[in-house]
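User: I would dearly like some help making sense of a protein record. I have put the entry right below:
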Amino acid sequence: MKSIRAKLWLVMMLLAGSVLLFLWLFQVVFLDQFYEQMIMNRILKQEYVLAEEITDNFNADELQISESFQDELNAFAYEKQVSITVLSDSMTVLYQVDAASGSMPGLQKEAYEKAYVSAVDHSSLIQEIKHQRWNIYYIMSSVPIEKDNSVSGVLVVMYPKASLKETAVILKQQLLMISGILLLIAAILSYFLSKNFTKPVLEIKNAAKAYQEGQFDTRITMKRSDELGVLAAQMNEMGAALSRNEQLQKELIANVSHELRTPLTLIRGYAETLLDVTGEDKIKRDRQLDIIVNETDRLSRLVDEILDLSQLKTKASLLEIEQVTVSQLLFSIYEHYENKVSEGRLTVNAEGLEDCTVKCDARRILQVFINLIDNAFIHAGDGIIVRLVIAEKKDVMIFEVKDNGKGIDKEELPHIFDRYYRGEKSKSDSGTGLGLAIVKEILELHKSIFSVHSEPENGTTFWFTLQKNSHKSF
């Protein structure tokens, strides 16, 4: 199988060869005829001009052409390398000059008679004649010399065909040399162009093969701004994404197996204890059953969050964008955290913005609030108070979830939204490590700006923005 480089080179050579083939067809096959016709048409046109001037320079009484015009005829004859004969209306030679070597026009009486007959009919004539002695071919053209709409003579010009053929041969030889040079240049240019074009294609192909074999760290080093450059950049992005996905897959397997093992071990252990040890001790049984229920809930929550995160990551869960008022969001939050609101552990400061409207998926944004608020209650410590602060700034609404807990270490902040990441202070907490990762995916789908600010022992603030209703939908 031929490579794409060889195929491209062959196509470019065929294109160059086709152009040269047509050039040869028209310049070699038809060159003689075309060149001869072109020369004779040009001479014939000049003949008509000379015929008109002869009329003005002809002395009818003396049957002579003025000397000044004879010089003009001589100049024309030697410039074009032709022989010129001027005949009167009685076939008398008024003037003759022979610049075409060996033409001997005086031997062509029959041809002159044909020219004269044609001139009497006010017509020009082009004829091919053969020298009676030297076996040389000539082209003879003749035009009538007219005065007052009557023919007073004939102007005859003879051109040796040998000159035309010699010129055509020279042109053919020149064309042969040019064709050879052009083919060589075309071959070289085709090679470099095909190499320049296929090199990035082969790089992309090799990268795709490497990705197929699991070598996701392969990158294409290409600096181009055309379509191939864009494709290479996209391939690099795909490689980076595949590399991340592979790493995440490994982390997923490791973390999930670890996260599942703990509750399953507890569930099994306490279930066996219930069967073998506890017996009729109701207090112990209830405590152990509570542990089993809590670990089962944690296990179920972990599975749900893994599924939810996967759907968000693959965009399988599309947003249902609608106009939502701040009061609608607050109502859902109050409903979910009714006890904590009544206990004063969750407060809201909306600054009179309850009637403001944002565009969002209300269900998903509620999930963001729940994950952030639950995260605060789980990780911030006992007795903390969570505040939800809503503010307005130009074309966005800003939502903040603040707590007065123990805060987050500075080195942990860059990883806080990573999947399965739990800081050193929260390793023993019951969280799954997926809540904030889900928050990140939802907010990115909303094209929201979000971040976290925290200092140890000074609390933590998570904030994000939502577009106000005055903006176009996204």
Notes: The chain has three domains: 4-167, 227-313, 322-467. Residues 228 and 234 are 10 Å apart (CA to CA). The first strand starts at residue 58 and ends at 59. The longest helix spans residues 161-212.
